[in-house]
Structures are given as structure tokens and as C-alpha cells.
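INSTRUCTION: Work out how this chain folds

Fields: amino acid sequence; protein C-alpha cells

Chain under study, with its fold:
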Amino acid sequence: MIWIWLAFISFVLAMLALDLGVFHRHAHTVSMKEALLWSLVWVVLGLSFTVVIYFGYEHHWMGMGSTVDSVDGLVNDGATAAVKYVTGYVLEKSLSVDNIFVIAMLFGYFAVPSIYQHRVLFWGVLGALVLRGMMIGVGAKLVAEFHWILYIFGVFLIITAIKMLVMKTDHTDPNANIIVRMARRMFPVTARFHGEHFLVRAGSQASYEGELPGTAPIADEVVDRTKPGTLMLTPLGLALVMVETTDVIFAVDSIPAIFAITADPFLVFTSNVFAILGLRSLYFALAGMMNKFRYLKVALALVLLLVGVKMLAASWLKELLGKNFNLYLLAMVVLVLTLGIVFSLIVGQRESSAAETGA
């Protein structure tokens, strides 16, 4: 089984190297066309991997599908593994949309130039893969040894869904975040951006170069007051810290959610990875249209609520719906998300028409 893990991780690293080293070697503003193209590429890759999952678990490649899935007590064959993978992928992909709303708010708060946003998201995604891998490993171990923890996950998801429905986070101040306060205590933060640098040393050439076109190449006040050679965090670095922090927070919601589907570490990890890899391009595709999807957050909360209830009532649902109840869950998740998008567009269109009529 270790060889399939090494093969998959090598593939992911190769794709990331190709992304940053070839297609995004030079910083540039990502256009809508480019974002949509890359979003399509990652979605196709993610869904195409279902074929690998099916044949791998059906024919037990490198030990795939040789252990009991502790969530439902079944040994996954090709069909059940494929359904669980797709369900997990759709679930993680949909929950990552909420993360996009927060990232857009953070980029606006820190005034991150569009030319550098891809770089922040790239390293943010790389860090997220490592952190989620660790969390998945711990979660799979807990579920395998303590099946009752799924009920705790279910209650947690229901509480999170209710909080999403009743709490407003549009005006959250990132500077009040404990991680940001800790970062500011550990490193002095420069008052301006320094090109693509996350960290610079006071008095170094990097402290004066890499400015945006049209800005004066002069040292800012923080550099002037800091001892030469001191390592400093730039606003771009601070934005990266916040992106990583928010992903950890969202992972606390999304990773328990996928354990409602399966506890197979490979299925959980691969579905998470493909969902996260498309997060950057999806951000650039949706960032300018956030206000059009006002009911999407409600839909995401309902998805979490649905998954939480499924965790608590898994045994009953399995008896009622049969072994394919994960397929029904996938259909419900897609239906809820589709309704959220459709209602958002309908209401938005009506308001636009009313505004034009009033004008």
C-alpha cells in the first residue's frame, strides 16, 4: 500500500512543480479565462482519478481495498470505493468554497495586489496539504480505534452548521486573530509590500527591491527603525499566515465531515488533495462573483447539517436505504448546492431587474 501512496504524492508534487515552475513562474494577475481553464483542469483530474480508485480497489492494486472500512464495517470494492471517493471529493470541494469567501476578505483587508495572490495561495495550499495529511492520519486512527467518536464528529458538524446559519463573519478583524498577534510579536512587520517576498532582512537589498510598478524604491519606516539584519515579515507573509490559519479552521469542519463517508485514509486523503488543489483557480474564478451567491453559505451550512445527521443516524439509514446510502448522500449534497446557486442567481436577477426598472 505504501507504493500507491508514494506514487500519488509524487504525482501531486510534480503537478505543483509544473504549476509554479512553468505556468506561473512569473508573477501575474490571473485572468478569468485562465482561472476557469485551470479550474476545469483540476476538476477533470479529480474526477478522472475515480477510474484509478475503481480499478485499484476492484483488483486490489498494491493492497488497495484489503482492509475493513471502520465507518460502515465493509471492505471497499471498486464500486463502493468510487462512490465514497466522489462523495468525499464533492463534499470537500463544496466546503472549500466557504474558505474562498474568507480568503477574498483577507486579501481585501491586507490589500494584497492581484499580481501576488497566486503565490500566496500556492504556498497556502502546499501548507494545507501537509497539515491536512497529519489531521487525516490522526482522524483515521481515532475512528478505527474508537468508533463512537463519529457521533462526536456528527454533533460537532451540526453545531458548526447552526453557527454558520446564525453568525455573521463579514467584518472579522484579522488583526484580532491570536496567530496574527503571535506573528507580530515574533517578527517585526514591514509597512509595505516587498515584491514576492514573505520575509526580508532589514537593510538587505530585498528590503528595497521588488516594489510594484510606480512605487518609490525607498525603505519604509519599519525598516528604518529595525536593526540591520533583523528578519521581518512582510504584509504578504502576514496574509499567508492568515490563509494557513483559516485553512486549519476549515479543516476542523471538513475533515470530520468526510469521516461520515469513509475512514479509509487513502480515499480521505486523495479526495481532500484534489479538492484543495483546485482551490486557487476556483478562487480567481469566483472572487469577483462572491456577492452573486448570497445563498451559497446557507447551502453549505445545510450540507454540514446533512452530513452531521448522517453520522448520528448512519446505522438506521443503512438499514433503510441499503448499502448504497452514500450514493443518496452524494445526490442530496449536489441537490442542496445546486438549489443554493440557483436561488442566488434568481434573486440576484430579480433585484437587478427591479433596480433597472426603478432607475
